[in-house]
Amino acid sequence: MVFPIVFLNFANGKVKGNIMKNVRTLLGSCLVILFLAVGIVPVLAQSGVIQYRVQEHETLYGISRQHGTTIEKIISVNPGLQPENLKAGQTIKIPTEARNSTQVAKEGGQHEVMEGETIWGISHKYGLTISELISANPEMNNSDYVLRAGSTLNIPSRNKSSARPSASSKPEQKAVASSQGKSKEIKIAIVMPMSGDKPEVGRCAEFYRGLLMAAETMKQRGKTITIYPYEESSDGDVLSILGQIEKNGVDIIYGPLYPSHFATMGVFTNRTGIKAIVPFSSKVESVNSCRNMYIVNTPAKVQNTNACTLFKKHFPGSHVVFLRTSQTQDDFVAAMKSNLRQDQYSELPMGFSNNDILSIASGKRELVLIPTDKSEGTLKETLTRLERLRSEMPKIKTVLFGYPEWEKFQETYVHRLCAADAYVFASFYYNPYDASTTSKMEAYKKRYGAPMLNFYPRYGLLGYDVGLQTMSNYFNYGKSFTTQVSSEAYLQSLLKFQSANKDGGYVNGNVWFMHFRTDNTIERISSR
Hints:
- The strands form five sheets. Strands 1-10-9-11-12-13-20-19 form an eight-stranded mixed beta sheet.
- It is elongated and about 95 Å long.
- The protein has 15 helices and 22 strands.
- The protein has 528 residues and is α/β, with parallel strands linked by helices.
- The two termini are 41 Å apart.
- It has three domains: 36-154, Roll (Membrane-bound Lytic Murein Transglycosylase D, Chain A); 179-298 and 430-495, 3-Layer(aba) Sandwich (Rossmann fold); 301-426 and 516-524, Rossmann fold.
- Helix 6 (199-219) packs across helix 15.
């Protein structure tokens, strides 16, 4: 199912919204067009309203747009109704504005119903709302009404200034690429599961909402973006979706989620030149042979290699002490050892003594302690031992260095991490104490009526950052967009794409060090 949203460039227009369940879209002076493939079941009307039976996969927002009304007006005539409790088969009231059907017929003409046509399709063809078509044809209000081929419908005329473009209409501002590759309009598609009860649905829906917030930011700068969300099924075939994407002239695809679709997507992007941004998985084999695939989640090998490079730049002359644990050694440790000379590191058991440290520290400027696994238990034990060491041997300069997974525990250990002068390497970082981040999260909560899910990364911020940076780069570079680093301000994720290999696509090579400073501030260190 496809729900294109067209952001048209009207002065001072504002668009806020989503089309999935539990999401509202608020309209300013900007026009948003949605096309929903749904069945219409009109039943007996009451004064000032019609009754409407909800179809499978419909949303309250979608229904409001079909009937030319708002979510708020529908809720006002349906006490207790909310977007989250809308169900297929439910009958709800839709407020309508009365029209003189005789006058409408004279103004607009008639339409002969063809085989296979629907009420929605006919109303959309003439730029009408369903309510307007029903008002012009009162017989549709009868509970036993059936739209039959060969019957004739009254078609009201529409004032040109208020008419909605049809499905074939083009956005007001046409895509133009300058000689430098810049574009003034782009079309994007989202291929993810966004309905149902599976755990991944919530994360994908949140990513999509963040992407919409990024699109709104671009729209406020005068850009035109057309968005086509497609429902991805874990056991379905994406070929039909890709066919629609190609037909619609999409420039960028965000997705897919499921690994079973990566290869098909890769072949498709090679053939069409459409760019596919895969935001979640770091294990996408197709990127090695598909030059238009972009992997946002940094692969572990790339992350470890780039972290080692940044480590050598930031800690020149420091001596590394690996603290062995009973857990499986992390791959990062092996990568570090291969980048250090034998005299640049030592190894001790986690239960080290002060004398063990003293013997290593002699003549060393600084000791960087790195436990060999990333578990929370190891973090807690390391902090406890380091606190005791610093208390008993304060003249020995030590810092703690750890893993991206520790970010999940930061709110529990943040003060202890700061006291330990700790560093954590990561490809993304959610800072709950950053003003810009908290402001965006509050805006998300206000718009969608719920906070972002408590996951790392925050998927709403991920959608916002990825959307803003990739859309901005496409506007600036067009199809030439490859490894350019966006100048956009990011909140959680910076994209620094690097070539996977000479024949393949691109992977995000960004790595930061998050420094928990002893003055209780957090510093983000980048090689940028």
